[in-house]
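For the sake of transparency, this paper describes our internal protein records without simplification. An entry from our holdings is shown next, in its original layout:
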Amino acid sequence: MSDLDQLTQSLARNLKRWRGERGFTLDALAARAGVSRGMIIQIEQARTNPSVGTTVKLADALGVSITTLLDYEQGTQVRLVPANQAVRMWSTDAGSHTTLLVGAEARGPIELWSWHLMPGEGSASDPHPEGTVELLHVSAGELTLVVDGEPHVIPAGTSATFEAHVPHSYRNEGPEPADLTMAVTIPPVRREDR
């Protein structure tokens, strides 16, 4: 089984599991996530590989991390994730990429990301649920963080945090590659939120 096949099977199994645990019907999850019912069915039947954006929307709607939806195994108290098992979420021909390093479900999902952005490249994100917080540290280059339309230049050695329930994006407008580490904490879905 290829890595992509394993990822597709894990996503199908985990999406069904979490939708069931939350008590969401297909229609309820579709409405919460802004993803079509047909797409959710295809994902749960392992017939498609959704985009990163679709996966993020589903994870946010379920109140779990992307890691939880993609993980092959979970449940140990200490979980080590070797570099070759980190999940590359996207990459470009120019060399930019993001890697989801690890995630957890303690008091709501939390994720740890590694980013590498080549000059002139960037990535935009839809708003996350109210209460989502992102923390980041730029280790090389310079990042332009745009939160709700307002740009913030973050040089190497600088950290930042923001509430991510508004549109936001990450851009490298400098001449050198930018490297950063980012943590995302997402509030848990409460049963009455369904």
